[in-house]
Every structure is written in C-alpha cells, then in structure tokens.
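The data layer described in this paper is built around a simple, fixed record for each protein. Such a record has a labelled line for the sequence and another for the backbone structure tokens. For reference, a complete record is included directly beneath this paragraph.
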Amino acid sequence: MSTTPRVLVSSIALTLTLAVGAAAQSAADILTRTLEAYEHRMDGIDNYTLVQDVMGMESVMYFEKEVTGGRPVVHLKRMTVGGRSMSTAGDAEKGWDQFYAMVPELASHAHYLGREEVHGFPVHVVEVRDLQDLDFIDVPHPEDADFRLETAKLFIDADQWVMRRAEIAGQVTTNGQHHDVTSVTDLTDYREVHGMLYPFLVTVQMQGLGAAMGMSDADMAEARKQLDEMKQQMERMPEAQRAMMEQMLRQQTAAMEQMLGGEGGNGMTVEMRVKRVDVNSGPPGGN
C-alpha cells in the first residue's frame, strides 16, 4: 500500500474514532448542561406548592429543596388529590424534579441520537439504556403487575435546556404474560415562575397499558360505546336535569375520557394542567 492510501485510511479511522467519541461525550454534556441550567433556575427557591387539575380532580403537591451530595434536590413532602391526603413514600417521590438528581448516573448510560423538533422547538435527543439497573422515575402500571424499565428517550430543548418530551419503554408482566408498554410524556406551555421554568401542561400517553390491565381492544371499544351512550342520554334530558347530572359526573366522565385517550381512543391519556405555582410560601395551610 502506498503512503497516500495509508494516510487516507488512517485519516478515516481517526475521523470515525473522533466522531464516536464526540457523540458519546455529547450525551453526557447535554445532560450535565440541563442539570446546571435547572440548578441555576432553582437558586433562591426553597420550596414551592403546585396546584393542578388531574383528570378532573384538584391535586396539591408541596415540594422542599434539600442539599444531597452537595447538590440541591427537590423532594415531594405532601400531596392531596381531590382533598384527600395521599402518601408521598416510595414511587410517589420520583417526580421529574428527581430526574435532575439522577443526571450524573444517567450520563454514564446515555447515548446521543442527534437533533429533532418537538412542538416546534429544536431538541437534542438522548437515549438512556439499561434502565433496569437504575432507580429511575416510575411509570404508572397495575399494582399487581411487575414492571421492568428498559430505555428512555429524552428530548431536551437545545436553547432553554428543559425537557420537552420523554419516551419511556418497558415491559409489564401480569399473570405470566409480558406486555410492552411505552409512556410518552409531553411537557408544554413552559412559564417562568420566580426564575423557574415550569410546564403548565403535562400530557402522559400510555401505549399498551390497556392490554397489561387485561383490557382488550374490544373492551376499550365497549367502554367508549358506553361513554358515548351516556352522553347521548344526558343530551336528551331537560336542561336543569342535564346540568345537575353533568355536575355530578363531571370528574368521572373527564377521567374516563382521558383514560380512553379522548375521542380517538388512541391509548390511555392523562392530562395535568397547572393552576398555579406558589414559591417560598411554605407548606399549604402554614404547617
């Protein structure tokens, strides 16, 4: 082989090596940049209360910031749903704030997939593999089922360094049957609140969960049919009676609509709309 081809081959090999190294490094860099931006925005914020509408019910969540391992970490301390107090132990604490605390560990499992657009915003796409080895954010699943996380694809805003979308894939096992489940979370309508950038609309679509819960396509279709029939019956009622029934069943029908995925029935969908975010006001009720 002449000198020129050898130089060419060596140059190509070096270029490929640098490209692979840059891609691997960029995933960690992107996650680290996202963490730094989050910590900068959280500077001066000691606690906040999130009031939101979840499936027709009001949810109130109180968070406090603590320093763990030299880094600020936000923990869920109190939660009520529909006026009822809920436990914050275990998986309930693994909200998206906890994602940032895991960035150093996630970075070692991350791979850069390139750039895309989500909701018109340019994003970096980072895939995190081997999630079964990490204590990652939990995904809703039946209580009597085993859930195994596998991969997460994170879509991070290239300018504002916030999460725009997260696709988390795994497998649910019920009664010895394995079902592939994918959770697609869209975080939109970001607003600045005392320096924080908070998504005022979060939509979670669960694909495959119906089968894992023992609901076949026929079951989903029948549930949709019953909901439509109930709406038609209510439309035929006298106005005063219809208004009373709509008031009584508002939360239930909203929850069913979202679990059936809206009018198209495209998977199971949960929508969370933020009403307000109170910053540094202490626990709700003052205790």
